[in-house]
Amino acid sequence: MPDRSPRPARWPRPVGGLLPAAWLLAVGLLVTGCAGTAGPADAPGKADASDQVDNAGPAASGGPSPLEMAPRALEPEEIPGLGAATRAAIPSKTSQAVVVTGADRDSDRSAVRVYERDPVTGWQPASDEWPAHNAVRGWTDDHRVGDLRSPIGVFGLTDAGGKLADPGTKLPYDRGPAFTATGNGAQGEPLAGSFDYVVAINYNRKPGTTPLDWTRPLGAEKGGGIWLHVDHGGATQGCVSLPRERMRELLRLLDPAKRPVVVMGDWNALGR
């Protein structure tokens, strides 16, 4: 495995400073309702102050004012489960995020969902929730070679590849036999087919190159080769793995024009 590691109501314009009597009567009916019964106080010439509607509008009788009836601006939706620090790490120009939420710090099980940011409504789901595996020992804020933990953070997604033909991604796609996976996983399961489809996670790598590029800007000791790839039925050494069809779906969803990122970590870390 590569890490070998209602518009407001329009009130009639007052005539000579007074509202027309017909309007006052209509408003009075609206305010008092149509289910009441007439009593002595309702007789002509004996209306009391409670039947009057002043120029303040419905609010004077306990109803909403025209301002309160106006549509209110929507608050843009945020990605569920992300805390302020994690949200701040997502670049402002990014409008596509693959969110990988680990079950807990030491678990190898995760859930993945893709979100896209609408300029008005905010972040909205763009996929179902998919089951996934992460590293056998869980997660870490300080990934190192051989620690068998997946790095926590927000990382770009710029490059893809695999042993099989491009399923229709907009990302640059490098196909070749070098993506052949061999050996067994942490639970003895065969790794064959794991790299049929991969997306490189820009942790300690040079963006814009094949996922096979081994440039390590942070140094070799910080690991690398962290990918999204096909699940092999068990934990990884640092990558995140998805069922084969979900990887194909993800590749078709990712769009470099939306500057996609992966937001990954255990649920507690992502909530910071």
Automatic annotation (TrEMBL):
Annotated TM spans: none
Domain L,D-TPase catalytic: 101-264
InterPro entries the UniProt entry points to: LD_TPept_cat_dom
Segments of skewed composition (Low complexity): 37-47
Associated pathway: Cell wall biogenesis; peptidoglycan biosynthesis
Region Disordered, residue ranges: 37-70
Pfam families per the UniProt record, alphabetical: YkuD
Recorded superkingdom: Bacteria
Keywords for the protein's UniProt record, in alphabetical order: Cell shape, Cell wall biogenesis/degradation, Lipoprotein, Peptidoglycan synthesis
Coiled-coil annotated spans: none
Active site, renumbered: 229 (proton donor/acceptor), 239 (nucleophile)
The protein's name: Lipoprotein
